[in-house]
């Protein structure tokens, strides 16, 4: 159910415009205010979510987080999710990839995550002290998901990766997810598996945000609610921890094609 109350939409539009003008120093370079506001109003008016019970100022605060990060609600790079009288901000898989590529201190050539299903070939190998990941997905595989992994390839030739079994993903979902029974988990389980392992890898990528507002918005956009000491530079809170599992340096070979599964 879309939000078609004209007075409500006018109020959100007015408050959002004023907030963007007030927070202009926290916005990314070349931020297009007019296009951002138009896309936000389109999402509120034509989208499926009903914001009629959510206070306008709460919606505006959520939309601002997307603006700080330079993400587009209309293109699905992030979401404003009404929950009762509140509105929650959440980044999408492709939005997190965009941010990593933009803010990584070590320039990224490619970053992505993939699910591993029954029938796929997946192995981690250590030979002569060198670690390698081989992945050969079965074509048109409709088998059950058994895990997921994320890869970051840097322009200097180095890489990092992380893996999670389905059991680890489910543990993270059940214990730390802000909405473990959400529509996303029920209808887009594979995408949520990819986002879960990608978000854990992201915490080990050295991201250098321009402002504290960007760093905080990135942390707020996580699907998961795990407390960690704030980063000294930004004093951000609610940082997603890696649950004690270290990310491993190594090589990746996809034996049946490659590229990002975005």
Mind explaining what this structure looks like?
This protein has 262 residues and is an alpha+beta fold. The chain contains eight helices and nine strands. It has two domains: 6-91; 94-254, no CATH class. The protein is globular, with a radius of gyration of 19 Å. The longest helix is centred in the first third of the chain and has 17 residues, at 6-22.
- Structural class comes to alpha+beta
* Oligomeric status: single chain
CA radius of gyration? 19 Å
Q: Overall mean pLDDT score?
A: 85
State the low-pLDDT regions, or none: 227-248, 257-262
List the helices and strands and how they pair.
Elements: H1 6-22, H2 33-46, H3 56-69, E1 78-83, E2 86-91, H4 93-103, E3 108-117, E4 121-127, E5 130-136, E6 145-154, E7 159-165, H5 166-176, H6 183-187, H7 189-202, H8 212-220, E8 248-249, E9 251-254
Parallel strand pairs: 5-9
Antiparallel strand pairs: 1-2, 3-6, 4-5, 6-7, 7-8
